[in-house]
């Protein structure tokens, strides 16, 4: 009974990671690809970790599973945030018609300002690919 | 141990099916690594591939009943996180100058 339950958990996690991978392939923009990989991938790996901990069963295995899940919960948003920031600062623009950040940061010093935006609804010419 | 590997589908077929799905999910991420138009696309795809490999290692440890493979998965996750941070810092620093 418990084997079927953990197997179903692992299968659901693997399907979520497959969806993350397909989203990485099919999404039109870097930022949509980033959020597809980050959110669905994290949920999938958490389900797989829980299934592994319950399958192995011992206290040490449960502690390992807790540590791995804590590590993924802590590190995936940090990595995604840093990658998105680096991508925006390196000139990749989102695939939208109004970029809320346009005109609000200095292009040389990369300093953000929350004041009045000179052009808020400037149409951008799409993302890459 | 190899006889135990041969007897895998009898013992826990759902875990083996999850491993097969994870291995199949490596393919679209690899396609994105090859033809990603920019470097951050490739870094994101490599990060997801590292997560998929961590999941494969965890399920292998669950199927074989070996807790040491979970330690290998922890080390791999740590290395993937550090490499992603390093790539992000590199991209940002390269555009700053």
Topology:
The complex is a heterodimer of chains A (129) and B (97).
Chain A: H1 2-26, H2 30-56, H3 59-89
Chain B: H1 2-6, H2 8-11, H3 13-35, H4 39-64, H5 68-96
Walk me through what this model shows.
The complex is a heterodimer of chains A (129) and B (97). Chain A has helices at 2-26, 30-56, 59-89. Chain A is built from three helices and no strands. With 129 residues, chain A is mostly helical. In chain A, helix 1 (2-26) packs antiparallel against helix 2 and helix 2 packs antiparallel against helix 3. The longest helix of chain A has 31 residues, at 59-89. Chain A is elongated. In chain A, 64% of the residues lie in helices and 0% in strands. Chain B has 97 residues and is mainly α. The termini of chain B are far apart. In chain B, helix 3 packs antiparallel against helix 4 (39-64) and helix 4 runs antiparallel to helix 5. Chains A and B meet through helix 1, helix 2 and helix 3 of A and helix 3, helix 4 and helix 5 of B.
Helix content of chain A: 55-70%
Relative strand content of chain A: under 5%
Quaternary structure annotation: heterodimer
User: Whole-number radius of gyration of chain B?
Assistant: 17 Å
What is the helix/strand order of chain B?
A: HHHHH
Q: Mind describing the biggest β-sheet of chain B?
A: none
Give the number of DSSP strands of chain A.
0
Q: Unreliable runs of chain A, pLDDT <50, ≥5 residues?
A: 119-129
Structural class of chain B: mainly alpha
Form type of chain A: elongated
Approximate shape of chain B: elongated
SSE arrangement of chain A, N to C: HHH
Radius of gyration of chain A: 20 Å
